[in-house]
Please model this.
Amino acid sequence: MIFTHVPITLNRHEVIRYLGYKRNKSESSEQINDLIDKLINKAKYIIEPKGIIKTVNISSRNPDNWEIECDAGAFIIKGEKIYKHLENCELITLMAVTVGSDLDVQIDNLFQTEQPTEALIFDAIGSDAAERVADYVNQYVINEAKRKGYATRFRFSPGYSGWSVENQQSIIDYLCTGEIEISVTEYSQLMPRKSVSAVIGWLPMITGETTDNTTIETTGEITSKTTDKNTGKITGGELEAGAKCTRCDTSTCQFRQV
Model:
């Protein structure tokens, strides 16, 4: 399925965060704020939010080498953390989204004409826009899964938690993203630069008690369940409500919110 124009609303506070300003620690000046507002309005006419998804069955698993076969072997997922993340899932949705190449051209032109402040602000706007598109498509998948009796794991992208960024290529190849003009460089960078690829796991939605006697919420995204070795108490499995950064173990990221 292709999303030809995704409706998004840019978030000024997120743009400021992507610029490196820390809430309650550093503040952008009034002059910068005015410029951000001006460029956000301009960006609305530059970005082209679009995406593509495909949902397929998980065919088999091989725990010996952390490998999952999907779509009768047409798509392979390999890696310990992504394997565990998709535990108990029966289907996956592969997704790729972008805000288009015109923004890249705009940013490059601004750097070339020695307007770095405007270029950096557009770059931050592009980062926020790409996340907004990903969130929109992600929510569509959540709604579809729920309609069919499934809950979902949060989206997991190449580069997260040990899942090699080189998997960008296999996702893009499988989705045939030429229709939305996404490609991958030899260094596994998505082009246009403000693009995102990810996998979303689907698992059966169970009301009330699960097979391990754990009561969980059954709508939206759920987290993995873990058992405390000392108390035996099971935690997790609840509706995903926290910051996205809690899902990522890149603790040195300059944009981390937790």
